[in-house]
């Protein structure tokens, strides 16, 4: 049975009750306990700095050359927090409810409420670290709107919020490194978890510079290794993002939860050709002021400026008047796909819609004219002043779009289309963020816990920092309090021998295939299968075909992949091959999970389960549970169900109309 360890009592008191009654480790004993952290993005860096500050001996690992290159740096639009600075009706409960509803009632209430509770603390923490959040004229922190909400609760630093937050966490991490509380291992990749007497006691890592395998002991292991969106090959994720750390843990007994819940982001630069290896995100914050539209006439090849207002379909505003352009990501993505599939797409590929800032420029320009009391002004003055305001708010995003497309978004509407962005699924964890392997924790995007079937915009940074700064310092103590008598286990223990041999054998097997096809070609083929049959829309027939195709691809990969170079040296192709091998196995499980979940919810859209208006149709009677998969053998998983109980946010059909 899955034990989620949710504390008893009223929902809004569970976290307070837990903190008041959890076990503690005294400062002297903390210095005797070793903690391993894999990944140093927002979740990992904040956890490492927090646990180092508490006195634990921390070892942190990242495969990049610096923690500052973690993919958290790419987050653009903002971070949510229930501070109600706008006095517009926000509250902890409102953030909790929006997150549960946005996730289509497939998240655990207790975890989400805790996230909403600690959200306000994150902002104070980051301001104290010097994170340069945007501010209003009077000096107060500024907020903007994001999808799925009717309040302004998103704090931001232009379009570089992830970068600024990561630098804040990185500074805290480096302070602990300087104090000797954290030892940093850059360019090291975790390739296995060491389990001794049923508990996670260490990891096997590969030094990516020398190729040497290393052993590291820890009283507990924390995985903060990010999401698995690159299983689709083309995504907004950095090309190095992978599932390997989480998948190796899965192979050692950690259940994988809701793997089919992946998020398609509605505002990305469209695919331009087969040459691309990744896609570029245009922040959801752009939907805060931009209007999305397509021509009312099919296959309309006119320039956007030649299409009059009466011949434009602002389809989100038309279909969802209460939220308009700020509907959640899954809703906006499906609506864009529907318009393009129906023949209303724009651009040369016809797989794009317009994101237009003309109205916003005009509106801001008129406000500036009024503020400056300009009596005698021209239309050009209004436009110029409006562009200045937009540049201040979104300038770096506009610059990025122009560099990539060669088009000036101040003059022409941006062309956008949905793309894979985030994964709500991940390793199953209980309320304390522990996986089904005792002593093995999972945080941030790598776990499944807070976003259900669809993540609201600006909630990823919130979850990563909440887990690292404010949750794990309490919950890990509840476990480590019983480990203070456990001495450090020597890394010549037979379990370490066995784990290292398994990793070494896998690497040797890969290198000895000596086939003809590149790792990249297999990754591309896997991505096409996943996008076509487990992407924005899924059906039973396509998923069954995908499972068979992935099994055949796996067989071909292990018989015909070609990896140049040698083992005991820097070998990026070998690193990539190891990751793609894991992606192939994950892809099969994702399709199996999507096939099992015969309902539509959030980002998981089964064509067999939709309303007459084409909206996602949930089946709460049959599928109000978390799918937690246990690996039994090759191609065989056992499903465990964690029933979801909603005591406060009663499930209802989602409506943003």
Automatic annotation (TrEMBL):
The active site is at residue 329. Gene3D superfamilies: FAD/NAD(P)-binding domain, Fumarate reductase/succinate dehydrogenase flavoprotein-like, C-terminal domain, Succinate dehydrogenase/fumarate reductase flavoprotein, catalytic domain. It catalyses: a quinone + succinate = fumarate + a quinol. One of its GO terms (biological process) is anaerobic respiration. Residues 523-656 form the Fumarate reductase/succinate dehydrogenase flavoprotein-like C-terminal domain. The keyword ATP-binding does not apply. It comes from the Bacteria. Its cofactor is FAD. Its EC number is 1.3.5.1. It is found in: Cell membrane. This is succinate dehydrogenase. The lineage of its organism: Bacteria, Pseudomonadati, Bacteroidota, Chitinophagia, Chitinophagales. The gene is sdhA.
